[in-house]
């Protein structure tokens, strides 16, 4: 693996990367989607495992538009807004109880902090959702508010990954050269966001529980195809790179 240079700013994705939250949130979203399909006809059906593989890293608004791709008139924007708010509420309820740090992440964050690396959290999730997860995962001490960037709340207009806006905003706030930043991402949309922003080094991560053992090789290949230069399965492998 290519070693990273000390002095780079490490920008972590949150869901499925720093916190093992994807499977919790996706199960909640899948259950809600089943309720939605009974009320609003025309939804494409997904079994849970297929739902997880298809929609990891994607906001619920995008999920709804995907499952109703062939009947977009079924849900109007008011319906979608209400369902997005309901998904957020339900997810936060579960995450505030169940969210845990991904294996090895506290060790990595302690290493970065103690060794003088600058790092931050760069996520599509809302600040309320991030706070619930970080509290449940006992990671709040590692991420003060000035090191947390939300595509939902931090930008003037919400522009989630795969758009590059939140990465560019985080780099600007941290007074960091984008080309000297490292992104750690578990999703294709996250990697594409980092690529579009011009992040200098992109590390794929496939250690979250939402990625099965059988799927890890294909997910690693997909992340590299999207633009990740390297892929790690264990978070503490990042220390070896640094």
Description:
- The protein has helices at 22-39, 48-55, 60-67, 77-98, 105-114, 127-136, 165-173, 188-197, 216-226, 237-241; strands at residues 9-12, 118-123, 148-150, 181-185, 201-205, 230-232.
- By secondary structure, it is an alpha/beta fold.
- A 6-stranded parallel sheet has the order 3-2-1-4-5-6.
- Helix 9 links the parallel strand 5 (201-205) and strand 6.
- The protein is globular.
- The chain starts with 8 loop residues before the first strand and ends with a helix.
- The model has no long low-confidence stretch (mean pLDDT 93).
Please describe the structure with a list of short key phrases separated by commas or semicolons.
242 residues, Rossmann fold
Order of helices and strands: EHHHHHEHEHEHEHEH
| CATH architecture tag of the largest domain | 3-Layer(aba) Sandwich
CATH class term of the largest domain:
Alpha Beta
Global outline: globular
Number of strands: 6
The overall pLDDT average reads: 93
Q: What is the number of independent domains?
A: 2
Q: What spatial order of strands do you see in the largest sheet?
A: 3-2-1-4-5-6
Work out the helix count.
10
Rounded radius of gyration (Å): 17 Å
CATH topology of the largest domain: Rossmann fold
User: Regions with pLDDT < 50 over 5+ consecutive residues?
Assistant: none
State the secondary-structure class: alpha/beta
Percentage of residues in strands: 5-15%
């Amino acid at each position: 693996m290519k070693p990273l240079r000390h002095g780079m700013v490490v920008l972590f994705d949150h869901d499925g990367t720093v916190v093992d939250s994807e499977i919790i949130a996706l199960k909640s979203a899948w259950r809600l989607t089943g309720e939605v399909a009974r009320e609003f006809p025309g939804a494409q059906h997904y079994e849970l495992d297929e739902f997880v593989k298809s929609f990891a890293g994607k906001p619920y608004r995008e999920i709804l538009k995907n499952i109703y791709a062939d009947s977009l008139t079924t849900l109007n924007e008011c319906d979608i807004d209400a369902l997005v708010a309901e998904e957020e509420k339900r997810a936060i309820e579960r995450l505030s109880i169940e969210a845990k740090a991904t294996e090895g992440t506290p060790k990595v964050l302690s290493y970065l902090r103690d060794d003088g690396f600058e790092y931050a959290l760069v996520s599509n999730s809302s600040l309320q959702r991030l706070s619930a997860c970080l509290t449940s995962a006992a990671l709040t001490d590692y991420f003060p508010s000035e090191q947390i960037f939300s595509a939902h709340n931090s930008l003037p207009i919400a522009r989630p990954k795969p758009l590059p806006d939140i990465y560019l905003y985080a780099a600007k706030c941290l007074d960091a050269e984008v080309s000297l930043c490292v992104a750690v991402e578990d999703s294709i949309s996250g990697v594409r966001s980092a690529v579009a922003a011009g992040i200098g080094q992109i590390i794929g991560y496939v250690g979250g529980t939402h990625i099965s053992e059988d799927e890890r090789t294909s997910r690693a290949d997909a992340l590299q195809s999207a633009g990740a230069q390297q892929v790690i399965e264990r978070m503490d492998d990042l220390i070896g790179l640094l």
